[in-house]
Design goal:
The chain is α/β, with parallel strands linked by helices. It is built from 11 helices and 8 strands. The protein has an 8-stranded parallel β-barrel with strand order 1-2-3-4-5-6-7-8, surrounded by 6 helices. Bound molecules: phosphoenolpyruvate (PEP).
């Protein structure tokens, strides 16, 4: 698996026309991807076939924003892993803070979703992160440990095809990214945790997410143990998304 990634979480945005304009814009500014840095976009479910079509031949991967923990059955409104695979999805975000906040998803359920992704043969992008209250109460490491413990209790520690995304909940969509010092401290902590768990997971990519944009990307992605970004708002703007991608490429050059 690649080590560096820029993954766009489009959330509940887009239309056939907007999606095409965005991908055209990215491809115009970036005619070829760098083999060392992956680019993935995660639209809402209905647009996945369109995204597969308009990204064909570009190297841009297509991901989903959620998955059912079940493979099929009477689960109205849910989408199963085999269905995602059927339409060409390669990556699935699980545990995004908006799923935790608005849908009550908890660590164990998120771990089961990650397992469903893995069992389907896809790559989970597992989000972890603390709330502002937890950070202020000095609980950040405890919260992250609980999230990672829950994940590995379900998926095991022999799978190297997992991407982690540290997303402090207070930095998502707020325009206020965590400081490089905070990011550095957490990513080092997560790397040390992974190293203790097993050789297979020791090198998992750890992305940062939370108000990353073109102007702050270089100061974040050049930090040790920051292996890329999970991008929300700035992923909806071709120039911003490409600027972040180029910062990643410069960081590995
Ligand atoms: C996200 O939703 O994963 C995210 C990082 O959003 P934003 O970049 O808008 O903070």
């Amino acid at each position: 698996m690649l080590k560096k990634w820029v993954i766009g979480n489009w959330k509940m945005h887009g239309s056939l026309a907007d999606n095409k304009a965005l991908i055209d814009g990215i491809r115009a500014e970036l005619p070829a991807l760098d083999a060392r840095v992956g680019m993935v976009v995660c639209p809402v479910f209905p647009y996945i076939p369109q995204l597969k079509q308009i990204t064909a031949g570009s190297g841009i991967g297509v991901g989903a924003q959620d998955i059912s923990e079940f493979a099929k059955g009477a689960y109205t409104g849910e989408v199963a892993g085999p269905m995602l695979k059927d339409v060409g999805v390669e990556y699935v975000i699980v545990g995004h803070s908006e799923r935790r906040t608005f849908h009550g998803e908890h660590n164990e359920q998120i771990a089961r979703k990650a397992k469903a992704v893995i069992e389907t043969g896809l790559i989970p992008v597992v989000c972890i992160g603390e709330s502002l209250e937890e950070r202020q109460a000095n609980q950040t490491e405890a919260v992250l440990t609980a999230q990672l413990d829950a994940l590995f209790a379900v998926v095991g520690t022999d799978n190297a095809n997992i991407i982690l995304a540290y997303e402090p909940r207070w930095a998502i969509g707020t325009g206020v990214a965590a400081t490089p010092d905070m990011i550095q401290a957490v990513h080092s902590f997560v790397r040390a945790y992974l190293t203790k768990r097993s050789a297979a997971v020791a090198g998992l990519p750890i992305l940062y997410g939370g108000s990353m944009k073109g102007s702050n990307a270089a100061s974040i992605v050049t930090l040790p143990n920051v292996d890329g970004g999970l991008i929300g708002s700035a992923a909806l703007n071709a120039a911003e998304f490409v600027a972040i991608y180029k910062a990643l490429v410069a960081s590995v050059a």
